[in-house]
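Minutes, project huddle
Topic: does the predicted pose make sense with FE2/S2 (inorganic) cluster bound?
PN asked that the exact inputs be recorded in the minutes so nobody has to dig through chat later. Recorded below.
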Amino acid sequence: MKVQLKVNGRASEVDVAPNTLLVTAIREHLKLTGTHVGCDTAQCGACTVLVNGRAVKSCNTLAVQHPGAEITTIEGLAAADGTMHPMQAAFKECHGLQCGFCTPGMVMSAVDLCKRHPNASEQQIREQLEGNLCRCTGYQNIVRAVQTGMAETAKA
Ligand code: FES
Ligand code: FES
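Predicted holo structure (tokens), as shared on screen:
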């Protein structure tokens, strides 16, 4: 099936089997490999992207369900000149990552939360990130990064 996907502001037509996952279309058809696959069963959050501004686990939805939707992946967050999004910069600054495998999904979930709750409490941040698993960091620096990213987003 041919489906029109709009990813990071760019419209592309992909030719996929009807059961192709959105994450597969993003990684294998559009070659945007910043979106990771950890569990493939909607548990780890490594595949999180924004669909019309909301965080979605892209291993848990089909590409054909999203024609024309505004999809944003980690590659689409930085400014055109390469300046990192404040949330990306905060993860770097606060050491909110170690191996980095979970990081794209964490950042996308945090960006979604930041839009809906710009003054989210630590509790709200932890609840939002419940669906994003990290094997390395112990989460403390991730929470600090999200708090910093929120404060910097508010200033931007
Ligand atoms: Fe999608 Fe783990 S790969 S939630
Ligand atoms: Fe390694 Fe999170 S930094 S899984």
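Observations noted during the meeting:
- Residues 140-155 form the longest helix (16 residues).
- The mean pLDDT is 97.
No decisions taken; revisit at the next huddle.
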